[in-house]
Specification:
Elements: H1 5-13, H2 26-47, E1 51-57, H3 63-71, E2 89-93, H4 97-106, E3 115-119, E4 127-131, H5 140-152, E5 155-160, H6 168-178, E6 183-188, H7 196-210, E7 218-219, H8 229-242, H9 245-258, H10 266-277
Parallel strand pairs: 1-4, 1-5, 2-3, 5-6, 6-7
Antiparallel strand pairs: 2-4
Length: 278
């Protein structure tokens, strides 16, 4: 069973708001709509032959500097004085601008405000890089957007820093990352700010918190050369080849349908999928 953008739109349009079993509670209905919209966004990107790569992190870890470092251009404003990303910025290759513009126009209700920035780095031609809002923002709308982007992403690059990796908010966010149906690339930024003798201990701490090995974390400095981007880009390309969102999501919904006889409507299939995910 193929899950297309049209099928996802049908699911959204036919949500049975009077269903007494699930949808009598507003927060449950909102969460279902939220996940459907994220799924739709992912499918629209995938349909264009692109991959959505979300750069996620807390305030001051250097997400914007990391993206500038990868692309070799100063496209995202970064500052050491109360740095904060409040709205998502979509970094797209100049050849993909019209495709991405079409996608975002069809999903404009999902975001309060967005920016599209064009680059000319051919290595990232098939990727939409997103500078996501900070997950520790005090604005609920920023956190909601950050969550939506996580659910829509094909790949998540989570940026940590020596000053921000083990606090409670970060730990909660990491636990959400583990549940995402996508690949996660952890990057430890600002490694140059740590004494050489202490770097191994820091990497070990980060790896333990993320449930990874030290070798799976990329220690970088956005102030240095960008040679490490080749390794990160290689991982992104491999993940894109492995990812087939239509087939994967279709098989999930197919399993939901096979496991029950009483839940047959698109709305109930999504409810079932949501419950299985929980």
């Amino acid at each position: 069973m193929q899950v297309s953008p049209e099928r996802m739109r049908t699911m959204l349009e036919t949500l049975d708001r009077s269903n007494p079993f699930f949808l009598d509670q507003l927060h449950v209905r909102q969460e279902i709509e939220f996940l459907c919209n994220a799924l739709l966004f992912r499918l629209l990107v995938h349909e264009k032959g692109l991959a959505l790569t979300v750069v996620s992190g807390g305030t001051g870890v250097g997400k914007s500097a990391f993206i500038n470092w990868c692309l070799g251009e100063e496209l995202c404003p970064s500052s050491s004085i109360r740095p904060c990303t409040s709205n998502p910025s979509f970094l797209v290759h100049q050849a993909q601008f019209n495709n991405v513009k079409t996608i975002l126009n069809s999903c404009e209700s999902l975001f309060n405000k967005i920016e599209i920035k064009v680059h000319g780095n051919d290595r990232f031609k098939k990727f939409i890089l997103v500078d996501s809002p900070d997950y520790d923002s005090t604005a609920e709308s920023h956190i909601r957007t950050a969550r939506l982007l996580l659910h829509a992403a094909h790949t998540i690059i989570t940026v940590l820093s020596p000053a921000k990796y083990g606090d409670q908010i970060s730990m909660t966010w990491y636990s959400q990352l583990r549940e995402m149906d996508c690949h996660v690339i952890p990057v430890l930024n600002k490694i140059d700010s740590v004494e050489i003798d202490s770097r191994s201990d820091l990497l070990n701490s980060c790896a333990r918190l993320l449930g990874l090995t030290e070798e799976e974390i990329y220690p970088i400095s956005c102030l240095g050369d960008a040679s490490e981007t080749k390794s990160i880009l290689s991982m992104m390309e491999n993940y894109q080849k492995d990812f087939d969102s239509s087939q994967k999501l279709g098989s999930q919904l197919q399993r939901s349908e096979e496991h029950t006889s009483e839940l047959q409507s698109p709305c109930n299939l999504v409810c079932r999928l949501l419950l299985e995910k929980k």
